[in-house]
Amino acid sequence: MAQLVIMETVQVADRSKLPKHIWHDGVKWLFVPIKIILDSLSVWAERQNKMTYALSLMSGASYIYILTGQVSFIFDKESDLTTAADGIAGLILVVETVSRRIINIILARRIAKILSTIYYEFWPSNLAGDEVDKLLRRRSWIVLISVGIYSMSALFWTTQCLTVPFQIHATPLPTKFTFPYLTSPFYEMVYVWQGFLCAEMAVSICGLDLFFISMVWSCVAQFRLLREYLKTAFDKVAQSGSIHTDENSEPWNVILKCIKHHVLLIDTALSYAVYECGWHLTAYERRLEKSLVLITARAQRPITITLGGFGVLSLTSYMKLLKFCFSTH
């Protein structure tokens, strides 16, 4: 009992540090740059303490004060439709940044538990062989490069927010305050303050996007590993030619291992992997075939991601949202 308490204490103490084995994993290594980015913004779920709460509170207070200035700018008599639309666009970005930070803090423990599951319970990328490991590594790089290109466009937007308003003696974000913010030295102070927050918004949004994309990609990689492991494991069992008892047969151990590690990771393509894994070449075993039938039946209901329980996240829903945003703009 004492040893268990010590192990739990060590695990809590080292929660802010990433396990060393993920540096060499073809999929989990993506969480290394993510931790560096989000930890610098004090939003990393595994390292939430009084200091990070204080920094988040200061950042949130700054954003809320900017929100008041943006609302004043939008409803100002001198703002026409075009300038009001620019103000609304900036307001949406600020609201999104604040909302993400608040949600990340509220769900920090749950996110940390999910990360612990990915670190220690998800299979390593080299489990099904070197070819699958290389494939997963290439696709992990594709994920990182794709989000990197997206982040570069966000940083380009930040430079535009910092250079163009300075030329016309305006603030980086369309705002209107009660004090004389366009006169020196208030203008310089507001300009530096909003410029810093614009950069933080870009890094925060892109960093959290990469974080959730990497979590989804880790689940997708587990699908692929499960399918490949089923194929290779049953082939090895069939080629070994060894005889086992029904109580502790090798095919049953293979399928039991797959079920234990992937009870929540069942997708449509898995049913084809089960059918083609070579189960018919092994000795007849009723419980093994029942388990395979159960996995095949469960695979007919694919896993989906919901938008807060209001709808399913898919390409169709994304295109509808994109069309709505363009029509509104």
From TrEMBL:
GO cellular component: plasma membrane
One Pfam family per UniProt: 7tm_6
Subcellular location: Cell membrane
Keyword Transmembrane: yes
Membrane topology: Multi-pass membrane protein
GO molecular function terms attached to this record: odorant binding; olfactory receptor activity
Predominant place of localization: membrane
GO BP annotations listed: signal transduction
Signal peptide region: none
Keywords on record: Cell membrane, Membrane, Olfaction, Receptor, Sensory transduction, Transducer, Transmembrane, Transmembrane helix
InterPro entries in alphabetical order: 7tm6_olfct_rcpt (IPR004117)
TM annotation in the entry: 52-75, 87-107, 141-170, 190-217
Organism superkingdom: Eukaryota
Protein's name in the database: Odorant receptor
